Each structure stands twice: as structure tokens, then as C-alpha cells.
């Protein structure tokens, strides 16, 4: 099953946005943990 046309573009855009959101969330969590460790010392 292959999708062509605007549907494929929309789907790829949704997947791209989803992965970017996950990546940004992960980076934010790591930064928060580092800050917490620094305050804990």
C-alpha cells in the first residue's frame, strides 16, 4: 500500500512533527534532570 499525493505529504509532516516533539520533550527532561542534580549537591 503506497500513498501518493497530498496525503503522503500530510502523513510525513505529521510523523516529522511527532518525532520532533518527542525529541524536544526528551531534551527538556534531560536538562531538567541535570539542573536537579546540580541543585542537589
UniProtKB/TrEMBL annotation:
Segments crossing the lipid bilayer: 12-30
Keywords (A to Z) from UniProt: Membrane, Transmembrane, Transmembrane helix
Keyword Transmembrane set for record: yes
Protein name listed in UniProt: Uncharacterized protein
Amino acid at each position: 500500500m503506497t500513498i501518493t499525493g497530498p496525503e503522503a505529504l500530510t502523513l510525513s509532516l505529521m510523523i516529522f512533527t511527532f518525532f520532533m516533539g518527542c525529541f524536544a520533550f526528551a531534551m527538556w527532561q534531560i536538562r531538567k534532570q541535570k539542573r536537579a542534580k546540580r541543585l542537589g549537591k
